[in-house]
Amino acid sequence: MNAWTGLVFTFKSYYVPIWKHKRTRVFIFFSLLPLLITMLVYFAGISTGLRGTWQGEIYFSNFLAYYLQFFSPLLALFTGVSLLGDEIDDRTIIYLTGSAFPRFSILTGKFLALSSVMILVAFAGFLPAMLLTGMVLDRSAVFLETVNAGGVLALSTLAYCALFTFLGIFMKRAVLFGLLLVFGWENVVQYLPGLTQKLTVNYYVKSLLPNLQQSKGPFAFLMQPATPLAALLVLLFIALIFLFAAGLIFSFREYGSQTVND
Amino acid sequence: MNYLLRTENLSKWYGNILGVSDLSLEIGSGITGLLGPNGAGKSTFMKLAAGQLKPSLGSITIAGAKPFANHEILRIIGFFPEHDAIYQNWPARDFVRFNAGLHGLSVRQAETESMKALALVGLEDVAERKAATFSFGMKQRLRLAACLVHDPDVFLLDEPLRGIDPLWRIRISDLIRSLAANGKTVLISTHVLPELEHLTEEIVLIHQGKVFASGNVHYIRSLLDRHPHLINVISPDARLLAAELICRDPVNGVEIEADGKTLSLRTENRDLLYRELTRLVVEKKLAVEELSSQDDNLQSVFDYLTGRRL
Predict the structure, then answer these.
(1) How many angstroms separate the CA of residue A77 from the nearest CA in chain B?
(2) β-strands B185-190, B3-14: how paired?
(3) Which residue range forms the structural domain that includes residue B60?
(4) What is the pLDDT of residues B110-127, one digit of tens each?
(5) Which residues pair with B14 in a beta bridge?
């Protein structure tokens, strides 16, 4: 059977069920949270005090940090790990591994369905909240900033989804390891100068968004950003390489040995 | 005969635990029963044949090809797994259609074939209902529909009649027979011999991962009949019965339980004992309240054959 047909079939089959999943609804709520806060700031009249001030800049960079350093990795962690994890837990994995399409195409189709839904989930809150925040803070290039940051958010979610899909397939307790990675390694390494910080996804995300880079404070000197083109290419490479590795493991792994009591 | 499924010295271990050991089989079209107690290795064998597991040693082929992760061969296999594996939140029709699509049917084909498959198992009226709302028996029928929707050549059915009500048991048995009549290869596993007796003459007995015996159902039945039986008789005339029976040929031992009413009879010729008992009851006008055989089941046959109990 044709791999492309398998990919398209799997994508179509999972796209709607992923939207209907409880986990997706929870993440939609968390995606909309900053929008609610921004609306509160706007309607409570606090916004005027933030315009053109350093507090306004902090508000804006925290807003971006919420989506790019907190929401996007967490969203990708819980959904990426569950890409096959749910199928294994429910024992429905046998339908995927017993399919007449190459396993690689099945995994890629489901991954693309999942990551596209998750990018849209992130956009659901991010795009309106970003535009509103721009208006609240009276930022001049708000539209351009929204397009730029939206692109980075999509790329970041894609890269993290691939990373956590791989981890979910590769190891047990991937959620725990993923949490340590997101809130431990990815954060701590930012304060280490040199090459180490290049071993995080966050580094390349930050390289694409100057607002996220620390331009003031004691650690300002530590960030040595990559060029935007290099950061873009590396994020795409991360997505591809981890998806490829996940597909490779899935293609040759046995999934029928959960129980031997037969 | 054209054998679709062949195994040669097939073995599978899960770490230190043995799944199947040194199985060499040839299975052709028609129905073959895989019979064995729980833990015998039936499901492991099914998973190996369905391409879900890799052999540790030896080989298994379907239509000449190894099935593990071989999507070309998986197209001709319909696997009904033992576990209640189902997308609970999907409507029944979506689940069957999904399986049709996974086996390469076009959107239109999947649509028509899934409704046909659901009709075959009597679920066409509830096709839009979520699987989570189904009873266990209905879920079994739904999984069977998903297994046959793509019209495979080889059916691997792991305990397909478990939890199904008597009426649908008969209908599904008829359905399985009709698949075999159409030249399909059907391998069906169970630990209940009478279930298989209605379906096939060809049985493979499997125990502790090994083929214990294989062949005609009558041969398997004779193994069952020849092993020592323990028969319980509850009678108010238990002592009289015991006295009469102890001098008769088929009886090897008699024991009267503490209640004074229950007799435990040991025999190696169950049928003869039943005949003698009936004649005695009629001749001596004795009352019998209950007659039961404790070990008229597969496990006791295996225990006997493996020498665990004599």
Answers:
(1) 22
(2) unpaired
(3) 5-224
(4) 999 999 999 999 999 999
(5) B17
